[in-house]
Amino acid sequence: MSRRDISEFTIRRLSLYLRSLRELREAGTEVVSSRQLADGSGTTPAQVRKDLSLFGSFGKRGRGYQVRELLETLESILGLDRQWRVALVGAGKIGRALLGYADLERRGFRVAAAFDTDPEKIGTSHYGVTVRALEELEETLRAEQVEMGIIATPPAAAQDTATRLVEAGVTGILNFAPVKVDVPPEVTLRGVDVVLELEGLSFALTSDVAGGSRREPGSAAGG
Amino acid sequence: MSRRDISEFTIRRLSLYLRSLRELREAGTEVVSSRQLADGSGTTPAQVRKDLSLFGSFGKRGRGYQVRELLETLESILGLDRQWRVALVGAGKIGRALLGYADLERRGFRVAAAFDTDPEKIGTSHYGVTVRALEELEETLRAEQVEMGIIATPPAAAQDTATRLVEAGVTGILNFAPVKVDVPPEVTLRGVDVVLELEGLSFALTSDVAGGSRREPGSAAGG
DNA sequence: GTCGGCTTGTGAAAGGATTCACAAATCAAG
DNA sequence: CTTGATTTGTGAATCCTTTCACAAGCCGAC
Known about the structure:
The structure is a homodimer.
Chain A: H1 8-26, E1 31-32, H2 34-41, H3 45-53, E2 65-66, H4 67-77, E3 84-89, H5 93-99, H6 102-106, E4 109-116, E5 125-126, E6 129-133, H7 137-144, E7 148-151, H8 155-167, E8 172-175, E9 188-191, H9 194-206
Parallel strand pairs in A: 3-4, 3-7, 4-6, 7-8, 8-9
Antiparallel strand pairs in A: 1-2, 5-6
Helix pairs in contact in A: 1-2, 1-4, 2-3
The structure holds a DNA duplex (30 and 30 nucleotides).
């Protein structure tokens, strides 16, 4: 079972377990069972155990998992035992909101550079990050050893941005623009689209009986 | 096949098809094949046909689908042939970025009210929406006939907010706070968590071979 | 009108993900 | 040390999604 064979479903849940574990650590809890982790992340105990078993045996039968230990293990599995340097392209409303989102830094994602094409924005600083001209993208990303990029541009600029990020050595991209973006197969791409999520709610609320609990696979309920 | 039995996978893809169809309409294209729709949304022609077949037969063999007609059909299926009134709770960075996000209105989601607890924020206006005191939530939501809510509060306030939204008659919630939120089964909940997405990238970039094209089920690639 | 090239719609097959169910292990109490 | 109450780890079974493959239908050319 190579890391390659782990499904994204599992990875999303590992992040959710991590979230629970952080809360448990804050609360001073030392041991946790698969049932508690399941309750805290909206899944089942069997699912928790199966997910973890893909990477090893971390619990004690009849007892559960050590919170601190499992937390560190999951961080290591997810590659969070280091800092990631991220580039942000697009300093509009979403871009600036992200710059102000302290959780990124707190969780190990440092926005090392921000870019825009608008002369009005270039040179301004937001939460300690100065917006640069898009022309400087390639040079800056190589100099700053950036490995991830966030696209927060208008839709029309998204594909170009993705291409340039990849060209500059980025291998992971989070796309906030509501358009399809193509990247080479060795680059990992994820997308966030608020309208798409709302459209999902719209469908659910439109169902014949109105409302309703549907299966929620992709975006884990409660995220 | 009741609407209830349609998986969220299918619904997410319908939104993606819709995105493609809107672009095609802009471009003046009148007919589209399942192959083109698949290319435009990162899936396969068979998947497109299967998805659509769950709701009826909308195409012509040997020819394809009428762009305008299919677009209207999908909008109707998703419940987008009307306007939805949405409440926003939390006028922080994310909340205000959403208020300024014109696509919401353009796609039929009108932010009818915004709320916060911060006296500094209450009374201020952003993009035409005035921030009200949280105390007014129930009253306002009933008066404005709001059916959807967006939680953009700090994590600690998210569950309380959800409970109050539900109490005020909301049956669809989009949660931006990175905590688990519980709602009754008749309420539909979706979550967006940027850190969780970045952690997914972190895992992919940490894989033994570095980078890599993994299956991307939940968040449609390119979203 | 018919031929050839396309494309849809859909059962059947294949491929994945989740749940079940139980042996093995741990621990506390007596 | 033994018993009973827990809880993990995991093969097997179930459930769900995607892909395959092909008959049926459409269109333009001739």
